[in-house]
Known about the structure:
By secondary structure, this protein is mostly beta strands. The chain has a single domain (15-110), classed as Jelly Rolls. The protein has no helices and eight strands.
Amino acid sequence: MKSENFIVGEKTEWFQVNEGMRRQILGYDDQLMMVKVEFKKGGIGYEHHHLHCQCSFVVSGVFEFQIGEIVKIVKSGDGLFIEPHVLHGVKCIEEGVLIDTFSPTRNDFLV
Length: 111
């Protein structure tokens, strides 16, 4: 199972996660997935953990991230690495966009 080789953002479906955030899958195979996540100001990615390695890039906006016991403010141009099974969450301080990558693929996002 894999995505097309070229994904056109304006033609790709969005999934509304909650009132303050939505996501768009921008490519995947069994080993890797890239996801664009848009946040409204005050939007929350509630604390959770998963078996995937996650790298995130802050395209725009300002976010308060918690990874394990550490809480930091990140902004445009910053990156994050989250190990498997580590509790993490995010709150959007200024409207923005994240690019999240996961390995292996988040099959729960494909349902």
